[in-house]
Amino acid sequence: MNLPWLALQTVYAHVAWAVVLAAVGVGLLAMRRPLPVKLMAGWVLLIAIVCSLPGRFSPSYWLSLAFHLPSPLMLMLCTRAVWLHVHGRVGDRAMHLGLALSIAIAGAVLYADTAGWLYLGLYVRAFGPDAAFFGLMVGGIALLRVTSGAHRTAGMAVLIALLGYTLLRLPTGNLWDAFIDPWLWMWSICSLIARALAWWRARGAVPQTTS
Q1: 172 or 130: whose pLDDT is higher?
Q2: Residues 182-192: what's their mean pLDDT?
Q3: Spatial separation of the C-alpha atoms in residues 187 and 173, rounded to whole Å
Q4: Does 202 fall in a domain?
Q5: Cα 140 from Cα 154, distance rounded (Å)
Q6: 3-state secondary structure labels for all residues of the chain
Q7: Contact partners, residue 58, CB within 8 Å, separation at least 6
Q8: Above 80 in pLDDT, residue 196?
Q9: Residue-wise over 113-142: b if at least 16 C-beta within 10 A, else e?
Q10: Would 137 be classed as within a structural domain?
Q11: Residue 210 lies in a domain
């Protein structure tokens, strides 16, 4: 079992939670209308300073106690969200459909296995060599998406998260934690619900033709 350095985990916790909080704040501030770039940049800077405070003075400390660490995939998607908002490119807040569906299903299976409804030992096996095959499969699919030009952003986010796990074993040394965390799982479920509602509204808006 190859775990990340404790000091590296601490630094990662401050950076990751700062990015997540910045993305949440920017998304809420720009929910109704685009905000000035200076205001959003100021918010990002404020969160970065607050989260860099030592120990219990930092919200990262309390968030890590309550929710552990965000996954690198969550970090990448939140970084993209902040980048788009700061540059005035406010797009769809819902996660890409394929990525959201994959995370939602994987999270449900992992939860069922951890809760004892299934007996696969998936989380423990992701610490050892069994994770290599899964990581290779995920990386291959993401690389195919990037090279084909289809959903390139989602594919790049997955590849960077996998690279961070491979080189630094972040955030915990477990491959599951590189791609799934509770907040990312909830984001994926909310994205699926939002896309289902949008599809239903669009379907209802299409005029029905009679023969």
Answers
A1: 172
A2: 95
A3: 23
A4: no
A5: 13
A6: CCCCCHHHHHHHHHHHHHHHHHHHHHHHHCCCCCCCHHHHHHHHHHHHHHHCCCHHHCHHHHHHHHHCCCCHHHHHHHHHHHHHHHCCCCCCCCCCHHHHHHHHHHHHHHHHHHHCCCCCCHHHHCCCCHHHHHHHHHHHHHHHHHHHCCCHHHHHHHHHHHHHHHHHCCCCCCHHHHHCCHHHHHHHHHHHHHHHHHHHHHHHHCCCCCC
A7: 14, 50, 51, 52
A8: yes
A9: beeeeeeeebeebbbeeebeeebeebbeeb
A10: yes
A11: no
Residue 39 is part of which domain span? Answer: 6-197
Q: Is the pLDDT of residue 42 over 50?
A: yes
The CA distance from 127 to 108, in Å, is: 19
Surface-to-core class of residue 209, CB atoms within 10 Å of its CB (0-12 exposed, 13-18 middle, 19+ buried): exposed
- Counting the structural domains of the chain, the total is 1
